[in-house]
Amino acid sequence: MAILDLGADTLGNLNKQTTQARAGASRRTVHRRTVLKGLAAGAVLGPASALTSGGTAEAAAGYHLAVVDQNSKTVRIFDRDAQRWNDDAVIWSFAGKEPWLGKKWWTDLSDVKIRKTQARGRIALVCASGGAAGIVQIRRGEHTDSDNDLIWQAYPDDNPHSIERIPHNGSILTASSKGGKNLQLYSSKTPDKIDDFDSYEKVNSWSFPGAHGILWDPRTKNEVSKGVLWVLGDGKLVGYKVKGSGRNTDLDVWREVVIDHPGAKMGHDLQPDFTKRGHLLLTDSKGVYRYDVNSNDKVISNPIWAKGRVKSIARHPVTKEYIWVVGSPDTGEMGTRVSIGKDLGTPTDERGWSDARFYKARIFSPDYE
After folding, report:
1. In what order do the strands lie in the sheet with 287-292?
2. How much is the average pLDDT of 84-93?
3. What is the pLDDT of residue 58?
4. Among residues 75, 138, 175, 210, which is most buried (max CB within 10 A)?
């Protein structure tokens, strides 16, 4: 994963302003404005100290996390180093507004991914178990609850759990855990204008029992169209090749991988391991697994962490810290803490509170691997 270098002066100023902001509550508004500009510009993909002074992976872990909390009904971006994730520490947030009275499509937000478009810069892909999916503009400027920045939305229904966008094609796919047509594909009516989200419509759908995770794997940075779309569901991980464009976009199975272990095999999360190019991290009912796309293995059986109810997994490229959320039946299968540590199951930091209902925690980065 490439770390953007914006120059020592720019990043040095961001570091200085962030430090000053933490010094007192009265300066936190300045901090939010400064960091949000950095988010839009791509300045916070990794530790600022490592970028400005040639620091190592042991440098201060100055990155940001996008967190889905179903209790507050928000997606929020926090500084990983903030001592408390309270209202003052929120850098950016989104809460989906219901389009019609009585509808609950934006209930129980379930996924967020940060992506980048040529025309609009950084966007957040979001979906909710209530039935909605959308794209939110991440704008420079003051901290805001960006309901007005919802630039595209659809209603795939049947418990949407994950969303992804194909970079070269522009098509948007959603994965729902229930229903007969779990994968929904939305494409532009005008394939040469893929950043015009007003022209998108549903063009196809497929069955994929228990679909919970969906992720684009570029395979090669030079020929993005040769990438693979991975989908995680009940007991299997499937890679698809994307063909065609616009209304003619379609999927062909490239590889099927069986998840083989006793008991329930309900998938939960699917993310890249940013420390190992070509490696995926995935979770299911029994644990956390790593899959090497280049291995051609057709079976996943041995977890790297045999822990149930891991709802979310991520790993930072520079610090090599894992970020995970473990759910509990006492909290509706959500988590009250986001855990951070270099060894799974042994957190060195935790953020959260007793009535939090975390479902996903993502590294703030538009990179696919």
Report:
1. 267-272, 279-284, 287-292
2. 90
3. 31
4. 175
Residue 101: per-residue pLDDT: 61
Distances (CA, A) of 276 to 198, 214, 281, 368: 37, 19, 10, 12
Its pTM surpasses 0.70: yes
Going from the C-alpha of 119 to that of each of 95, 190, 194, the distances in angstroms are: 24, 15, 9
Integer Cα distance of 17 and 12 in angstroms = 9
Question: What number is the average pLDDT over the span 207-226?
Answer: 87
Full 3-state SS string of 16-37: HHHHHHHCCHHHHHHHHHHHHH
Bridge partners, 269 (sequence order): 283
Average pLDDT over residues 18-43: 43
Higher pLDDT, 129 or 30: 129
Give CATH for domain 66-363.
Answer: 2.130.10.10
Which pLDDT band, with edges at 50, 70 and 90, does 78 fall under?
very high
Output the furthest CA–CA distance in the chain (Å, rounded).
Answer: 56
Residue 180 CB coordination number (10 Å): 9
User: Tell me: the pLDDT tens digits for 159-186?
Assistant: 999 999 999 899 999 999 999 899 999 9
Contacts of 308 (CB under 8 A, 6+ apart): 285, 286, 287
Query: 3-state class of 294 per DSSP?
Result: helix
Using alpha carbons only, how large is the chain's radius of gyration in Å? 19
Element holding 326 (H helix, E strand) = strand 322-326
Contacts of 20 (CB under 8 A, 6+ apart): 27, 30, 31
215: its two tokens: 């992720």
The model's pLDDT over 288-337, given as tens digits with 9 standing for 90+, comes to 999 999 999 999 999 999 999 999 999 999 999 999 999 999 999 999 99
CB-based contacts of 133-137 (< 8 A; 24+ apart in sequence): 133/160, 133/163, 133/172, 133/174, 134/96, 135/165, 135/172, 135/197, 136/75, 136/94
Q: Are strands 299-300 and 250-259 parallel, antiparallel or unpaired?
A: parallel
258: which 2 tokens? 């069986």
